[in-house]
G protein subunit beta 1 like
Amino acid sequence: MAAPPLPPPDPQFVLRGAQSAVHALHFCEGAQGQGRPLLLSGSLRGLVHIWSLQTRRVVATLDGHGGQCVTWLQTLPQGPQLLSQGRDLKLCVWDLAEGRNAVVDSVLLESVGFCRGSVLAGGLQRWMLAVPGRGSDEVQILEMPSKTSVCSLKPEAQARPGMPMCLQLWQADSSPRPLLLAGYEDGSVALWDISSRKVCSRVACHTEPVMGLDFDSQEARGVSGSAEKTLAVWSLDEQQALQVRGTHVLTNPGIADVKIRPDRRILATAGWDHRVRVFHWRTMKPLAVLAFHSAIVHCMAFAADGLLATGSGDQRISVWSLYPCT
């Protein structure tokens, strides 16, 4: 007889103290000379908590969004700066150097939708920012920190994809032209060439809004999840045409977030059914179902060393060590 499958692991540890639902997570690598990364979380009450994974306690609390939900967190590679996006129509730039936690700049947003921003690092001081734009179907591209408008990406009138729901800026190693992947309300994913302000290709991946996507630029392969119970895996060919490669039906509908681990070995999905599902990224073989949370899992983040953090409406953050990076 075949041996029964191993039961899913328990979290390595659980962080309590967010005091409201957790909607954003991000690992800050190599911070303050520590061996372990710091973990940043954004809450429904508008607070950003900075957690030490050594003491498993909050080391600082940032309050810059007037009590409105924090939906996205991202650190900049060129220095200890943090971006936080909130439902208060504001994106704050924080200086975290040498223990500081001050807002040094902010960008006023034009859309209060659920769409998180995306960053593409340029030179040492310059970077590109994509955020939802003024029109309900627009994406605004800014050069930062000058806040210079690069362009506004608006679909052609006949396309009617609805609101952008998730964004990912990226740039191929072989090209200087920045590209944007956008998941839309109608379930489609589009690839934009920012320089020409045109859609290179668009593919219908879902019948419900795209809630999360991630892209493996080395393999030119991406994945998206939606309000339905289907994961879509798609690829990008040398002519920059998107093509659906396969779909994977889940037990229950509703994917709030999808993340490919930095080593591109595993994929995790955050479910409305309180579950985190883990897949082998190359084969999409299901590996584990993590059933710890008691409410919607809103967000996830992978650290460079492979740690997975998941944040939920149950106000808890669970930290997992799965299939260690080689």
